[in-house]
Amino acid sequence: MSGVISTLRTQYPLGLLKNVVFTLWLLRYTTKAYRHLIGRGLIGSVKDIHAAVTRWAWGLLLKLPSSRKKIEAEIAGAKEQLEMKLVNYPQTLRRFETLPSSGLSENEVREELQALLSFSSKPWSEIQSGQVSGAVYHGGSDLSTLTSEAYSLFSLSNPLHPDIFPAVRKMEAEIVSMVLRLFNAPDGAGGAMTSGGTESILMAVKGAREMARVERRVREPEMIVPRTGHAAFDKAGHYFGVKVWHVDVDPITYKVNIADVRRLINPNTILLVGSAPNFPHGIIDDIAALSDLAVRYEIPLHVDCCLGSFIVPFLERAGFASEPFDFRLRGVTSISCDTHKYGFAPKGTSTILYRSHHLRQYQYFVSTDWPGGVYASPSIAGSRPGALLAGCWAAMVRVGEEGYLESCKEIVGAAKGVEAGLMEIDGIQIIGKPLVSVVAFTSTDLNIYEIGDELSKRGWHLNALQSPPALHIACTRLTVPVVDKLVQDVRDAVQALNEEGREKGSEGSMMALYGSGVTEMPDKSVVRRLATVFVDTLYKA
Ligand SMILES: *Cc1c(COP(=O)(O)O)cnc(C)c1O
Q1: Is 427 exposed, middle or buried (0-12, 13-18, 19+ CB in 10 A)?
Q2: Domain shared by 420 and 476, yes or no
Q3: Is residue 463 scored above 60 in pLDDT?
Q4: What SS3 class is residue 185?
Q5: DSSP secondary structure string, 430-472?
Q6: How far, in Å, is the centroid of ligand 1 from the Cα of 196?
Q7: Tag placement on the chain: N or C end, fewer CB within 10 Å?
């Protein structure tokens, strides 16, 4: 008898606990499913389920021994090709897989550096010819010399120690202040410098996540990003455990669908995102409408001006069409702006701006108990290169407002020239209505990647885009003199392909990756493996 009672006693609370846990579990998943249904709508949800099932089926198919063998062979082949292409240098270059036992003489190092400089599959002269899309944001060779001087003067400095390097602190604070003004930041705004656009975006997401955690107790953060938003937002989601909802763009304007963004907002939403402009197509999202949503639902809005950097703020004054994008819109809470793009500062510099100091604090990291001392730092890095800040500061104060206005006129003028020229070509369509420096184009009747390969033969290095297949050029100052050549070369490429007939298989590099269909497969594991092999190859000595 007493045995039965004690069993009952222990079983009853356990049973209750089980029920509670089950109910909570059920509640959690029903809430998730419900939010998905509301966020994506019925058709969207069915599409999402269909895509998930297709991916799963493909995954199974690819795991079959026969397909696995084929995939392994393909990947091994790709690896070999990549190594041949990337780790292929003249035997005259000395190799250093271990430290030289005694150091080289200064002159030997100089000679080796010269040899390295002249070894390049794309000679520097070709890169400077303006035929390479967006790779070099050049402010002129005099400016490069000046920023290098600034760099070497401050090569030992580290902003982590402002007491030892007060000048670097001053320059950094001034850079942030100058960029804040450019974006019409209100009183009380603040910002920070980072190592690049990616870190600026990481910080914006981390800050928004932290603020939602502390002020709204959000434990399963989500953010809503246009499908055309930079991959750095996915990186941020990956690093900081924030779920990323991608929202499609309108098929005509290529701006993010505002109604779809609104539907996805729920109590877990920590951040809305818009680009001004985005990387793939150079299109500015409807930031004003996003700002209205941000105000209405009291959610932060980040505007990615990494690429727009020192061009979008000057569009209006340069006499070009523009759209509202900055802190003048009440809902905009943070902006990322790359000084190392159209600011012509050395690579490795960017800024992240916040509407208020309060918002900025959430990006900081503070450790109070470390035996090394109380440790506080604004961004990801600990020690940072003061030299880069000095180079950035020098570039900005040298170019000045008039200089950037002039460069905006030149660069956007070049982009307009490209757009107008390409529009005239039969079979070529411009994507959306680009207002800034990037022009993306595609073709309804030819394979756009084959056009890309034809252009490569003519010395161009444009960016290949996917979903939908397209090419783009990010105009820089170097593009200005070669606009007509680009238009003519696209025309020639189209004509050449039309004459050859379309069946022709191409061995070009764009076709090899994008034309093979591997990027269109619903299961991305093969693409992921190939990309990983690529990164591995970068570290092969
Ligand atoms: C370049 C760019 C970024 C950030 O890139 P980084 O290479 O990290 O500087 C972010 N967004 C857009 C739209 C960009 O073009």
Answers
A1: middle
A2: yes
A3: yes
A4: coil
A5: E-S---SSEEEEEESSS-HHHHHHHHHHTT-BPEEETTTTEEE
A6: 7
A7: N
- Edge-to-edge order in the sheet of strand 222-226: 190-194, 350-354, 332-337, 301-305, 269-275, 222-226, 243-247
- Which among 133, 136, 137, 198 is the best mutation to test ligand 1's pocket, defined by most ligand atoms within 8 Å of the CB? 198
Let me know if residue 490 belongs to a domain: yes
Cα–ligand 1 centroid distance for 198 (angstroms): 6
Buried b (16+ CB within 10 A) or exposed e, 380-406: beeebbbbbbbbbbbbbebbeeebbbe
Decide if pLDDT at 148 tops 70. Answer: yes
7 vs 528 pLDDT, higher one: 528
- Asked if residue 415 and residue 337 are part of one domain, the reply reads no
pLDDT of residue 135: 64
Number of domains, the chain:
3
Question: CB atoms < 10 A from the CB of 176, how many?
Answer: 19
Q: Are residues 360 and 435 in the same domain?
A: no
- Asked, for residue 14, whether it belongs to a domain, the answer is no
Tell me, using a 6 A CB cutoff, whether residue 493 lines ligand 1. no
**Is residue 257 within 6 Å of ligand 1 at its C-beta?**
no
The answer to whether residues 363 and 416 belong to one domain is: no
Classify residue 479 as exposed, middle or buried by CB count within 10 Å of its CB (0-12, 13-18, 19+): buried
Whether residues 352 and 484 fall in one domain: no
How many Å apart are CA 523 and CA 518, to the nearest integer? 9
- Provide the pLDDT confidence category of residue 214 given band limits of 50, 70 and 90: very high
Distance between CA 428 and CA 498 in Å, rounded?
13
pTM confidence score? 0.92
Q: Are residues 419 and 388 in the same domain?
A: no
Residue 126 has pLDDT above 90, yes or no: no
- We report the CATH number of the domain holding residue 321 as 3.40.640.10
User: Each residue of 390-434: pLDDT tens digit?
Assistant: 999 999 999 999 999 999 999 999 999 999 999 999 999 999 999
**Residue 336 structure tokens:** 């990322």
Do residues 355 and 410 share a domain? no
CA of 201 to the centre of ligand 1 (A): 9
Domain carrying residue 30: 24-63
Read off the CATH number of the domain in which 469 is found. Answer: 3.90.1150.10
Task: Write out pLDDT tens, residues 241-295.
Answer: 999 999 999 999 999 999 999 999 999 999 999 999 999 999 999 999 999 999 9
Whether 198 is in the pocket of ligand 1, judged by its Cβ within 6 Å, is yes
Q: Measured in angstroms, how far is the CA atom of residue 341 from the centroid of ligand 1?
A: 9
